UniProtKB/TrEMBL annotation:
Subcellular location(s) of the protein: Membrane
Organism: Chryseobacterium terrae
Family matches, as SMART domains: HATPase_c (SM00387), HisKA (SM00388)
Coiled-coil spans in chain: 95-132
Pfam families, per the entry: DUF4118, HATPase_c, HisKA
Main location: membrane
The reaction(s) this protein catalyses: ATP + protein L-histidine = ADP + protein N-phospho-L-histidine
Protein name per Swiss-Prot or TrEMBL: histidine kinase
PANTHER family: SENSOR PROTEIN KDPD
Membrane topology recorded in Swiss-Prot or TrEMBL: Multi-pass membrane protein
Length: 352
């Protein structure tokens, strides 16, 4: 890669020199020195130190040979010109070295800032995970111990045992969701997302998702089958994770008894899914930032890793789709997902 820098820096100096030589009658050789020095400065901002040193040395030789009297010789008869030549050579080299040092310092500062930001983000993740993973694990372990002790002492009736088993079920679902989110964000960052499209009855998919949601905290989730929809050819797993994360966020971050509404339509050769709620909403200034990894709203309640919506965005875009967040009226949020998809009605699919 560096040989290209040698070639480009050499060609650049030669090109500037040729242009200066063509107009040598209009500018004197002292002005030419300033032009060549400017060219070296530009090269120093773009390339590594050794190609820049080469361009500085080459420009000094060319300036001496082609421009300083007597021309077409390396000898310099005038003392002032000799001092000017050495000054030019020194300034060109110094300019190259200092510019390179400045670029190095900027790169180190940028790398340090990125490293600090990365550490901050992963500290946020670890702090969140310490709660999000510890809580369900502690629930599972504590409930299992309670069941063991109760089974040994015969203290619990069937209904109480079922309540404890339900607690384990809820904690397991929560734990599974967090582990999936961690694995999914890793897939998104590694760039290995490859959607596998298959025919999907979106009504059936949403109904199955709603059955999987164990905790609604008194929320009302409204979904009415749209029987006029065709079958969509999309990645069922990706779409399921998109819907699960948005619905889970709506349940977690809206007040109890909030209404979460899901609507699906076929629009412009796309599957359009709109999920709205009448909660407190998200400030408009956060609408774009909310999809960033580890992003959580100020004063949001404890829990959550800030990965859910970044996964939603990643899985949507992996299918060539878009997601838009808007404010609901009079309050709340609206997530609109559009996923381009091939469609077919059931009677057509049977004949294929």
């Amino acid at each position: 890669m560096q040989y290209r820098q040698y070639i480009l820096s050499t060609v650049s100096i030669l090109l500037v020199s040729v242009l200066c030589f063509i107009v040598r009658d209009s500018i004197n050789y002292k002005a030419t020195a300033l032009i060549l020095l400017f060219a070296v400065s530009v090269i120093a901002m773009l390339f590594d130190i050794f190609p820049v040193l080469l361009s500085a040395f080459l420009s000094a030789v060319i300036w001496n040979f082609f421009f300083i009297p007597p021309q077409f010789t390396l000898s310099i008869s005038d003392t002032d010109d000799l001092l000017m030549f050495f000054s030019y050579f020194f300034i060109a080299l110094l300019n190259a070295v200092l510019t390179f040092k400045i670029r190095q310092a900027e790169r180190r500062a940028r790398d340090k800032e990125e490293k600090e930001q990365t550490i901050k983000l992963y500290n946020t993740l670890l702090n969140s995970l310490s709660h999000e993973l510890r809580t369900p694990i502690a629930t599972i372990l504590g409930t299992v111990d309670a069941l063991k002790e109760a089974n040994h002492n015969h203290k619990l009736n069937f209904s109480q045992q079922m309540d404890l088993l339900n607690d384990i079920d809820i904690a397991t679902v929560r734990l599974n969701r967090q582990v999936k989110n961690i694995l999914n964000i890793n897939r998104i960052e590694s760039g290995i997302l490859k959607p596998k499209s298959d025919w999907c009855d979106i009504n059936e998919l949403i109904n199955s998702i709603l059955q999987k949601i164990k905790i609604t905290e008194g929320h009302i989730i409204s979904f009415i089958n749209n029987d006029n929809l065709p079958l969509f050819k999309l990645d069922i797993g990706f779409t399921e994770q998109i819907l699960l994360n948005i619905i889970h966020n709506a349940v977690q971050y809206t007040p109890k008894k909030s209404i979460i509404k899901i609507e699906v339509t076929y629009e412009s050769k796309s599957c359009k899914i709109v999920i709205s709620d009448n909660g407190n909403g998200i400030p408009e200034s956060e609408h774009i930032l909310i999809f960033e990894k580890f992003k959580r709203l100020p004063d949001s309640k404890a829990g959550g890793t800030g990965l859910g919506l970044s996964i939603v965005k990643g899985f949507t875009e992996a299918q060539g789709g878009t997601i838009v967040l808007e404010n609901n009226t009079p309050h709340g949020s609206i997530f609109t997902i559009k996923i381009p998809a091939e469609t077919s009605f059931i009677n057509h699919l049977k004949n294929e």
